[in-house]
Design a protein that fits this description.
It is built from 12 helices and 9 strands. The protein has 303 residues and is of the alpha/beta class. It starts with 19 loop residues before the first strand and ends in a 6-residue tail after the last helix.
């Protein structure tokens, strides 16, 4: 497979308590129901000092104590630190020891492969990343690798070529791509991701010029992936995380999203990962728990 494909022209796990399955009505009362997707609901990261202040963790909770507490409430998390630094297998293995065997991880791809790419060394960086997350692959606890690009990653020929090469270099891993630049919202891009069985991340974020739109396009029948960033339009362009992701979803917003987006997604993929990234004042875990409650109320929570 060529590593310079132009993207512009161009799995069943045991269910932890907080995992949900989407129910579909059968044609008749006695008809066999079709296979339904498993939904994994959690937050983007779990280690935030402000979550202690917000009452998410007990007073005095240290960073090293947070993951086991988090895993009591949620079955999956995104590993954010793997964007800031290259994951090391021994550290990842220690994290695995802190959670139940049926807990799942989505790991962000390191920034040296998304935001700070060196044309001479990026393939070596990709090899290091594979080694670092190997424990999650071997234990079947890796739900996806999140490849998140910034707004400056536009759909120019150089970037199209790099993305094609990167996806080829990481082939064999479960991959999900998140774009921030609206230029990537293109049918030819969707078709190429579908051909490669790479998941296109669905985002919920402010509707701003040039920012990638909220879509319900599914490019991988094995997995859809949703990230709730919040809808703080005023704070989004501030370049300050404390403002950008400071948002609290209302019940009405979550219910409307379920009605407008979720049913289309669950019809198109076997598994879904849904993460809240509005972490600033502890809104993410509260919103994630509320979404689970709404799913249960709607009859979508697995028994």
């Amino acid at each position: 497979m060529s590593t310079s494909i132009d993207l512009g022209t161009l799995g069943g796990f045991p269910c932890p308590p907080a995992m949900v399955r989407a129910e579909r009505s059968s044609a008749t009362p006695h008809a066999t129901k079709p296979a339904v997707p498993a939904l994994w609901v959690g937050t983007s990261g779990y280690s935030y000092p402000e979550w202690v202040e917000a009452g998410i963790y007990p007073p005095g909770t240290k960073a090293g104590q947070m993951l086991p507490l988090y895993a009591q409430k949620f079955p999956v998390t995104e590993l954010n630190y793997t964007w800031y630094q290259m994951p090391r297998a021994e550290a990842v293995e220690r994290q695995r020891d802190l959670v139940p065997p049926n807990f799942r991880f989505c790991a962000k791809l390191t920034r040296t492969l998304t935001h700070e790419v060196d044309a001479k060394t990026w393939k070596n960086e990709a090899g290091k990343y594979r080694l670092g997350i190997a424990p999650l692959v071997q234990s079947h606890q890796l739900l996806a690798v999140l490849i998140q690009f910034g707004a400056s990653f536009d759909r120019c020929p150089k970037h199209r070529s790099y993305l094609g090469a990167l996806l080829s270099e990481l082939q064999g891993l479960p991959l999900a791509v998140e774009f921030r630049n609206a230029a990537w919202a293109n049918d030819k891009v969707f078709a190429e991701l579908e051909r490669r069985r790479v998941t296109l991340v669905t985002v919920d974020e402010p509707e701003l010029p040039g920012l990638y739109p909220s879509l319900d396009v599914v490019t991988n029948p094995e997995l859809f992936y949703v990230r709730f960033h919040g809808r703080n339009a005023l704070g989004w362009r501030s370049n300050k995380m404390a403002t950008q992701f400071d948002y609290d979803y209302s019940d009405g917003e979550l219910t409307a999203w379920m009605d407008e987006r979720l049913h289309r997604l669950i019809e198109a993929a076997k598994t879904g990962a849904l993460f809240f990234n509005n972490h600033v004042r502890g809104q993410a875990p509260r919103n994630a728990r509320r979404l689970l409650e709404l799913l249960q109320k709607a009859g979508l929570l697995a028994a």
